[in-house]
Amino acid sequence: MGWYENMGKWWERHRFGVDLTTTIVVGLAFVPASAAFNFSSGYQNGLQTAALSALMLAPLPWRRTRPALSAVLVYSAALLHMLLGIVSLFPVDLLLLVSLYSVTVYGPRWAHRTAMVSSLAGSLVLGLSIAMQAGSPAEAAGVLVFTSMLSSLSFLAVWAFGLVRRSRRETINALVDRAERLEVERDQQAQIATAAERSRIAREMHDIVAHSLSVIIAQADGGRYAGATDPAAATRALSTVSETGRAALADMRRLLGVLRTDDLDAATGTGPAQLTHAPGLNNRPRPLPGGTAPSGPAGPGPRAPGPASGSVPTTTGSVRRPELTPQPDSADLESLVSQVRESGMRVSLVRMGTPRSLPPGAGLTVYRVCQEALTNILKHAGPDPTVTVVVTWGVDVLQLAVDDDGRGASADGSHAPGYGLLGMRERAAIFGGAVTTGPRPGGGFRVRFTMPIPRLDGAAPPPPPGPPASAARPDPAGHHGPTAYARPRPAASVPVPPPPVPPPPGPPPAPPSGSIGRRTPTGTTPPAPDDRQDP
Fold this sequence. Notes:
Blueprint: H1 3-13, H2 15-40, H3 46-57, H4 67-83, H5 95-106, H6 109-131, H7 137-226, H8 231-260, H9 262-268, H10 272-276, E1 315-316, E2 319-320, H11 333-341, E3 346-353, H12 362-380, E4 386-393, E5 397-404, H13 420-430, E6 434-439, E7 445-452
Parallel strand pairs: 3-4
Antiparallel strand pairs: 1-2, 4-5, 5-7, 6-7
């Protein structure tokens, strides 16, 4: 920024002081000059000349702060000059041009237009006054035309220059206002983005921590009760607690590591999007629920300290990058159900339809919604609930249903309302889905999640509204039913396999040998099913 820009800003901030100083300097030069000029031209009253000059100079300090008022006072002093019969011009009469320029640039439109009309009228009056002193009519006409034209052209030139300056000033002010509005909008967008990012991080942390702690609590309670009779079971419970805690820690590190590498990503051009699509990333083994990599069963002995399972730390200089382990998606629901089943809860997973790839983030949404629903069952469903998870892949919609026959939320209100259901609805809304929750008619709780997905290749579009199936007539191609008229062309479509029939209710399968909790020990007769089954 140059010195002239700084001076211009200082000039704008101190308008009155600058104009007052300018008026004093001009007054010291013009007032004596006006008196001397009139004395030399035969007008002997120098005091009257000095008074008129000072009167025209007095409004000058307000020419930019109060341009309309300043112009009125200056033009009034000039009119008084004409009414006194003083035909000769004073040097301070040039201040009329300064006043016209100031009111044109800084004043309202009506003010500078009125000043211009007054200037033209004053030019005509001045020409008439000087022409009346001419010796002959021809000389008077020439003086009138010359004086009026010269004065009018001077005023018009100053007015035109003022209009150009006014237009430039208005353009600059409009650009400054627009820049300020854009800056405010940018700050607002940054605040909105920050709030959205905080909400996203809060949802992720809630899902990770709540699910992991629920599993840890269930395993810890089971290990405490089984420790007196089966020390090996207590050891296995501690191993499960350790693995779950390490998995949650790895997820938290991966989540918070993105926040710590923003500056590094901006400098190197390797942001989260680039890390997600890094070469070879999709070829890595799928992590278990919580973000850990597949590994063998933990032994009963203590584990040596080291990095969390599945962590792939990479460094750039001294900065530690977040792990490149892919996020879980809908394909990891089996691992999630297995982990919850290890806590002693009877869970069955049923898949219907043809699975397909989902948009980025949609698979994680399905996983998190199912994880939150199972976590709520662990916390609120009571002892020995039976849970059914049904994933239905439709033509253009994915449905997830999680039902249990437990008691639902605690009746004593010991569990404060959290943000799990709100987080599920927010996640679903991002991808145009919806979540409905509520008690089941036969007891228990129900969670329904629906989300639009890409259409299955080759599937026929949905039929338009028409007559019922009973009124449909066969088409020439031999098709029957309402779909006979919904086919745009006779091209064969890829058949969709019929959904498998879910197994009839019966005794649950024996849980894995390495899990404990509310399960039946190996070698004993399983308990009778709970009477709160699905009707």
